[in-house]
């Protein structure tokens, strides 16, 4: 078949490098949509691997086995023929150069485009032809030699996602091939049953009228090539998840410097405050499973945006790994170390306090259950949301408080015990892409935390310098008015939680490329 087939083979090979072939110059993996990088890698394969590379399934591209294809024009065309090529090979693609690549972003359903300059490509093999070219009849079978000179070739398609075994693959759709050769040379041996005079005259006629002939058959020819190329590309993309084409995953040979090879490289940043921190740690760990930890039940990796799968993975960690997992650096999450944080309300607020928690721990996260996941699609800039139900979570440690609660002054320092009963936790944020070392990471933005407890129980020891009567009465007052108190501190509390939790999530996502979190 024609020059386009070599292009497809090259494109395929470029992508397949990410499966870990031994490359002479090891081109760096490309981030999504990086046209300059994609062009560089494609040209590497065109010029350095044109004889093929079995380790990544790259066939020889110079020559390229073009197989069998047919160009057929209808009776209403000046070029009315049926031309079949069989056992054809294509030479010259090793001298081609890619000069533009568009698309190949996280959203595979967008348009993809590749442009190539090919000095000369020659198609040789067997042919059979019958019909009419302009005003002359033509027939014959034998050997063909067709050469396109100084050809500009454009491939365009959109992707269709195909879900398989927890991963997303790309299938081509609306494939279009555009060819713009400056010159086209024909040589068809054995025309007219071997009549040399007629055959030579016909070849002369074809070459003198090459532009007009190509103009007539170009559309049909391109459509046939598009079918064959779609099939070639689909076979490649059906074996490799789309997002994996852009990131190296555990290759023995090629390891980008950002690959996480040991538990210390995957360490989760220290989580901070309240039950939500346990939730965040669990969430992170559910993703980190795909780095190769040895799990008792080995939850399958999740595809982008697969709510059911993500819920299953998160709940696995909540219930089965709450004591930690050194193989993936999952710290103990029941209890968890909540660290130190401060709530400070202004004087114009009915709850005007300065309350600092230090050396606090949270228990109860192991009984939490995730029930809703939204977002986490290929486009990380979209909104992400996690929802959890927690029967009871208790914050214990040291506190120091000064201020006024509703109508009563409050002060003291000592031990605290605050329990949120039957709480609904909602975490929301949008992602901001952060490009680093050829990979795309997610940074959180517009982080929001919403907490809806059914009840909050307070107990602050040593209030009012240890005055038991005043202390007991204040704790009674706090518990009788928990709803009003929580309503007043909710915004400030949630903002503090958002800052701490976004810091935790950013720390994790700054070490692991976003797309790698979803694929083995």
Descriptive notes:
This protein is α+β, with helices and mostly antiparallel strands. It has 2 domains: 3-246, TULIP domain (Bactericidal permeability-increasing protein, domain 1); 263-518, TULIP domain (Bactericidal permeability-increasing protein, domain 1), CATH 3.15.10. 27% of the residues lie in helices and 39% in strands. Strand 9 (369-374) and strand 10 form a beta hairpin. Helix 1 packs across helix 2 and helix 5 packs parallel to helix 8 (482-509). Residues 1-25 and 248-297 have low confidence and may be disordered.
Short description:
This protein is an alpha+beta fold. Helix content is 27%, strand content 39%. A hairpin with a 6-residue loop joins strand 1 (64-72) and strand 2 (79-91).
SSE layout:
Layout: H1 3-16, H2 35-48, E1 64-72, E2 79-91, E3 97-102, E4 111-133, E5 136-164, E6 167-188, H3 196-208, H4 210-237, H5 274-288, H6 307-320, E7 336-344, E8 351-363, E9 369-374, E10 383-405, E11 408-436, E12 439-452, E13 455-460, H7 468-480, H8 482-509
Antiparallel strand pairs: 1-2, 2-4, 3-4, 4-5, 5-6, 7-8, 8-10, 9-10, 10-11, 11-12, 11-13
Helix pairs in contact: 1-2, 1-4, 5-6, 5-8
Please give the domain count. Answer: 2
Q: List the secondary-structure elements in sequence, H or E.
A: HHEEEEEEHHHHEEEEEEEHH
| CATH structural fold name of the largest domain | Bactericidal permeability-increasing protein, domain 1
Return the structural class.
alpha+beta
Shape category: rod-shaped
Radius of gyration: 33 Å
């Amino acid at each position: 078949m024609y020059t386009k087939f070599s292009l497809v083979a090259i494109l395929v090979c470029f992508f397949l490098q990410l499966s870990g072939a031994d490359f002479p110059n090891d081109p760096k993996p490309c981030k999504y949509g990086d046209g300059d990088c994609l062009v560089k890698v494609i040209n590497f394969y065109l010029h350095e691997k044109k004889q093929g590379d079995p380790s990544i399934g790259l066939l020889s591209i110079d020559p390229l086995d073009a197989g069998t294809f047919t160009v057929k024009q209808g009776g209403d065309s000046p070029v009315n023929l049926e031309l079949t090529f069989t056992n054809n090979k294509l030479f010259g693609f090793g001298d081609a150069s890619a000069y533009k690549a568009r698309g190949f972003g996280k959203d595979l359903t967008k348009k993809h485009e590749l442009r190539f300059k090919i000095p000369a490509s020659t198609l040789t093999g067997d042919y059979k032809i019958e019909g009419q070219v302009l005003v002359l009849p033509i027939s014959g079978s034998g050997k063909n030699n067709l050469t396109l000179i100084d050809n500009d070739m454009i491939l365009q398609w959109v992707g269709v996602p195909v879900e398989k075994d927890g991963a997303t693959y790309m299938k081509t759709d609306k494939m279009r091939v555009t060819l713009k050769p400056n010159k086209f040379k024909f040589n068809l041996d054995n025309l007219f049953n071997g009549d040399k005079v007629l055959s030579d005259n016909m070849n002369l006629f074809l070459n003198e009228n090459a532009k007009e002939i190509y103009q007539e058959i170009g559309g049909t020819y391109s459509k046939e090539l598009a079918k064959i190329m779609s099939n070639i590309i689909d076979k490649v993309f059906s074996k490799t998840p789309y997002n994996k084409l852009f990131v190296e995953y555990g290759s023995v040979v090629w390891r980008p410097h950002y690959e996480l090879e040991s538990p210390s490289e995957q360490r989760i940043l220290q989580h901070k405050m309240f039950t939500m921190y346990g939730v965040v740690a669990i969430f992170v760990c559910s993703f980190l499973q795909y780095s190769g930890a040895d799990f008792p039940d080995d939850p399958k990796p999740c595809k982008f945006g697969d709510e059911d799968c993500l819920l299953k993975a998160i709940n696995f960690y909540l219930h089965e790994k709450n004591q930690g997992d050194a193989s993936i650096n999952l710290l103990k999450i029941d209890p968890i170390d909540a660290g130190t944080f401060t709530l400070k309300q202004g004087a114009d607020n009915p709850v005007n306090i300065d309350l600092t928690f230090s050396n606090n721990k949270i228990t109860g996260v192991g009984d939490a259950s995730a029930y809703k996941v939204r977002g986490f699609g290929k486009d990380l800039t979209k909104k992400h949301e996690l929802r959890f139900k927690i029967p009871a979570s208790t914050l214990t440690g040291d506190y120091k408080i000064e201020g006024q609660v509703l109508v009563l002054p409050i002060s003291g320092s000592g031990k605290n015990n605050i329990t949120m009963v039957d709480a609904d936790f909602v975490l929301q944020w949008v992602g901001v892409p952060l490009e680093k070392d050829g990979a795309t990471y997610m940074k959180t933005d517009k982080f929001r935390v919403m907490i809806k407890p059914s009840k909050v129980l307070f107990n602050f020891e040593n209030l009012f310098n240890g005055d038991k009567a005043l202390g007991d009465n204040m704790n009674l007052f706090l518990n009788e008015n928990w709803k009003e108190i929580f309503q007043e501190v909710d915004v400030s509390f949630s903002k503090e939680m958002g800052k701490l939790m976004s810091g935790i999530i950013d720390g994790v996502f700054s070490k692991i490329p976003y797309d790698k979190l979803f694929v083995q």
